[in-house]
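Data card: per-record layout.
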Amino acid sequence: MGAFPTKSIRVPVRFAVPALFVAGLLLARPAHTAAQEGRPPAARLRPATERPAPGHALDTASAPAPRPCKIAFYNVENLFDTTDDPATRDDAFTPRGRRRWSEERCAAKCARIARVLADLSARGGGEAAVVGLAEVETRALAERIAADTSLRGAGYAVVHEESADERGIDVALLYRRDRFTAEGHRAVPVVVPGEPRLATRDILTLWGRLDGRPFFFLAAHWPSRRGGAEASAHRRRAAGAEMRRIVDSVQQADPTVCIVAMGDFNDDPVDASLTECLRARATLPAPGSGDLYNPFCTLYRAGRGTLVYRGEWNLFDQIVVCERLAAAPAGAPRLAADPQTGAHAAIFRPDYLLLRTGPDRGTPFRTYSGNRYTGGYSDHLPVYIRLE
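The structure for this 388-residue chain is written out next.
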């Protein structure tokens, strides 16, 4: 595919950021990438069904004062429905599969995840206005979580796109309709150089207005460490570079848009995929640098984590923000300290999310231990940031 004709893009004014985002992304990526996807990436642009806020999408003069809220992310681990999809490797999570996955177990897990999100919102500092989820097989499962009685008052809407992941697990976003007005979303494939057939999760993007101010969200689940951390590192570097290209396109379109990138990055905050490829820094970015700020670096250096592998904690689940949120001018939305810890990032770890007995006491309470059903939540802990 040749150069994308940026001047030919004709979209409503409210899509000014997405239009330049699509054009910039196409121009920044290698020409072979779009061809490998089998269709022009612009075809994956999805307008939201809700009516956008009146006025220009980038005009913040009339925006109300920021209200406290949380932005959260949770890898819910293997949330499958019970139907066997012949196109994916989901056989274990079927009634006849080795996990003996049933409708009752699926319903129980959805209810448990909803309870976690409700409790996270109830913690001081504002409700969770936007939530990213990883390892969700279908949109219907995300909608099931959003419709649970514990979250019914939140009125969450769901954004989900099927990805090429070989197991069929995807990323989803939930947002409160009373806080966020969606204007569109797009799923961006991750293509690893030299491995055009690698099936992995897309980067899900969502843009609109949070309390009247323009925001752009990215949610991702980067390639795993299967085969070893070093042997697979190039895949996560490719995912980080792709996410960086999206951020650059949005910042070039309008530097006043607030950008939040979240995900299970399968790397810690100090790894090159984040520090070099995504340019997510441990300190506040220099003005005008375009770098992102990663508040989870502080937690990582303090020995905190969101999952345990071979007895060691890793902090793969993170949320990073643009310079505008990290060092906001007066009256604008900004990253805020957690009222209980004083940190700018938080890991949500109530006792019920952790094993209480046995040799793995204090680690995340999973749904399965091997093939044995234990009725837990996930092998990851949720994370969040606060905005005010």
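Known properties of this structure: The first helix runs from residue 16 to 28. The CA atoms of residues 152 and 280 lie 35 Å apart.

See the next section for split statistics.
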